[in-house]
Design brief:
The complex is a heterodimer. Chain A is mostly helical. Chain A has six helices and no strands. Chain A has one domain. Helix content of chain A is about 65%, strand content about 0%. The radius of gyration of chain A is 18 Å and the shape is globular. The radius of gyration of chain B is 17 Å and the shape is globular. Chain B has a domain of about 60 residues. Chain B is mainly α. The chains are: A mainly alpha, B mainly alpha.
């Protein structure tokens, strides 16, 4: 139960942060990506503000045996950069630049759902599902 | 001045940082939106609830903000084909690359993950180039 409450609170803070920083607005994000135009550096300040807090929090967590409401820290595998990481980041960046939405802001603006936002979220979920299918075809079939 | 908003950007960034800090310290989870959503269909039964709770908070918070401070501006100006292509690329790309702006950009950089640094540089560079091509070369 506590884990659900902390996850909900985290989602609330995240959504509030996206709204306050105006990163929920694709045009504002595109203003950051438009280096050659009327450049708006705001997104860099959002990342800087977030990194100040997360860097301290991750450093603090290293002194803990386990998280407060769970058995262990689910650390991502820290393998070297491979072709998947590179191709994935590039494809994501192209999509981000085409529209101005990354996954967080797209989902956060669902409450004000215009048809176009819904369309983006639907396409994004289909893209994610296509990856799941692609990933299965690439993985060796487990022996029975 | 409306164009560059360093104060609200930093303030919002601090809130996003707090969100990621809370999820890590309390639940031991990375606040990466693409992973939280993308792993939902294949997650084990005990691993589903917190994902739904987080996403509910993410969607509810802007509505709460709107009821107090007015509806946030959301300008989605891309054409329908661009929205469809962009959505597919963002969905597939973030899953293939193992993260998005939040997972690699906010959480990974704070953990000094080399993977996340490379990913963040690449998706930023791809975003810059894409906007340059669509706004200044093609769209002109």
């Amino acid at each position: 139960m506590l884990r659900l409450v902390s996850a909900f609170a985290s989602g609330l803070l995240f959504g509030l942060g996206l709204t306050v920083s105006r990163m929920i607005d694709p045009a504002k994000v595109l203003g950051f990506l438009d280096l050659a135009g009327d450049w708006d550096p705001s997104l860099a300040f959002v990342m800087l503000g977030a990194l100040i807090v997360t860097t301290s929090a991750y450093a603090l967590a290293r002194r803990l045996q386990a998280p407060l409401c769970a058995e262990r820290f689910a650390s991502p595998a820290s393998t070297a950069a491979d072709r998947r990481l590179i191709a994935g980041a590039l494809l994501f960046g192209i999509g981000w630049g085409l529209v101005g939405y990354c996954p967080g802001p797209a989902l956060a603006s669902l409450g004000f759902a215009g048809g176009r936002t819904l369309l983006f979220v639907a396409a994004m979920l289909i893209g994610m599902a296509l990856f799941t299918v692609f990933d299965r075809t690439r993985r060796p079939v487990p022996a029975r | 001045m409306d164009h560059f908003t360093p104060v609200s950007a930093t303030l919002g960034g601090l809130l996003i940082g707090l969100a990621a800090a809370l999820l890590w310290l309390a639940n031991g989870r990375i606040a990466g939106i693409s992973g939280i959503v993308g792993n939902l269909p294949t997650a084990r039964p005990g691993d589903i609830g917190w994902r739904i709770a987080f996403l509910a908070g993410l969607i509810v918070a802007p509505l709460l903000y709107a009821s107090l401070a007015g509806t946030p501006v959301i300008r989605l100006d891309a054409s329908v084909p661009a929205i469809l292509a962009g959505g597919l690329l963002v969905g597939f790309g973030t899953r293939l690359g193992g993260g998005c702006t939040s997972g690699h950009g906010v959480c990974g950089l704070a953990r000094f993950s080399p993977r996340s640094m490379i990913a963040t540089c690449l998706f930023m560079a791809a975003g810059f180039v894409t906007v340059f091509l669509t706004r200044h070369l093609v769209g002109g």
